[in-house]
Amino acid sequence: MSGLDTFFQVIWTFLRLSLFSLGGGNTLLQEYHHLAVNRFHWITNSQFADLYALAEAAPGPSSMIVGLLGLGAGWPHGPLWGLGTGVAAEIAVLLPSTLVMVMAALSWSQLKDAPIRVAFERGLGPITLGILFSVGVTVLRTSDHHLPAYLVSLLVCALMLFTRISPLYFMVVAGLLGAVGIIQR
Amino acid sequence: MTPAPLGPSPSRRQLFLGMLQVALSAFGGGLSAWSQRIVVEQRRWMTNESFLTGLTVARLFPGPNQINMAVYIGAYFRGLPGALAAIAGMLLLPFSLLMLVGFVYFQFHALPAVDRVLTGVVAAAAGMALSMGFKILDEYWKDPLALLLAALTFIGLQFLHLQLIPVVLVGGPIAMALYWPRQAKPKP
């Protein structure tokens, strides 16, 4: 495939997923993994795990992982293709949801007590819950392959739930554990 | 204490700069808290009440929450152009930085030292991903129907290997029908 083919494949992929990002965007991670690794072979399994970690560690919304996936898809065709495809991927995933959000912002007051709003709000919550658990399991299976790695993940999960420590510290400590070879691929 | 009066509506340029300030302030995290501080308290563009309404709408609709919030603020004052200005302000610096990080990554990730550090960071990030579901679990803990729907969604995605789009297109309307508010009986 040429760089241009990949460019359009990436744009179309993220355009059509945009409106399915319930519950803040993280619900799409499993789908991103399926498409980027298994279906289109833009990147490898461990690259996906790396990019997810980088997007979580970097400042700003973690949904920007889409830009990194685009970058990875275009990279084999050269760094400039990577950059262009990365920017295009981010715009593609944000455009449809932004247009819907603008309409929502402008018409919200009229919808306030409509039954469809109540049903939407309460009905989609449980679906989102199920998707998020599935995303967690998928990312875990993509990332960890040995017992020490699983233990670190479970510990970080517990610390995220029961403390208010910034996750950046967990990443630094885990990075050191990786550097000395305690956590391995 | 009476709340200070609201300032004039921001222009597109001010929306861009305001969101740029939010993104810069939030480099250590806490994007929503920073946008509240800057938009409501410092710049006095909207009341806290309007801000919280925006946050609800932002969570409800598809798209990343923080970006939807920027869209809401921009659209509230200047429609679509305002929304685009606000997103640009919020994403310009973090996205450029992330692309730079990505460049460095694809250039150097094959180096053994880089790969070993990343292996550790990846395990921590996986723990963060796993915590997302647990974080909202207690909202649904006392609702057996919600837990059933969540379990079916989980099984479909994880064990039956269904794709997300059909799951949402089929499961969404079913869940909405089950949670459709019952009509209150008219008073005699």
Strand content of chain B: under 5%
Please describe the biggest sheet of chain B, giving its number of strands, its sense, and whether it closes into a barrel: none
Q: Main sheet of chain A? A: none
Structural class from helices and strands of chain A? Answer: mainly alpha
Alpha-carbon distance between the termini of chain A? 30 Å
**H and E order of chain B:** HHHHHHH
Shape of chain B: flat
Briefly note the structural class of the backbone of chain B: mainly alpha
- The low-confidence runs of chain B, each spanning 5 or more residues with pLDDT under 50, are none
Number of strands of chain B: 0
Q: Summarize model confidence as the mean pLDDT of chain B.
A: 89
Q: How far is the first residue's CA from the last residue's CA of chain B?
A: 46 Å
How many individual helices of chain A? 8
General description of the model:
The complex is a heterodimer of chains A (185) and B (188). In chain A, 76% of the residues lie in helices and 0% in strands. Chain A has 185 residues and is mainly alpha-helical. Chain A has a domain at 3-111. Chain A is globular and about 60 Å long. The relative contact order of chain A is 0.12. The mean pLDDT of chain B is 89. Chain B is built from 7 helices and no strands. Chain B has a domain at 12-109. Chain B has helices spanning 12-25, 31-42, 48-60, 65-108, 112-137, 144-158, 164-178. Chain B is an all-alpha fold. The termini of chain B are far apart. In chain B, helix 1 crosses helix 2 (31-42), helix 1 packs across helix 4 and helix 6 runs antiparallel to helix 7. At the A-B interface, helix 2, helix 3, helix 4, helix 5 and helix 6 of A face helix 3, helix 4, helix 5, helix 6 and helix 7 of B.
What is the structure about, briefly put?
The complex is a heterodimer of chains A (185) and B (188). With 185 residues, chain A is an all-alpha fold. Chain A is built from eight helices and no strands.
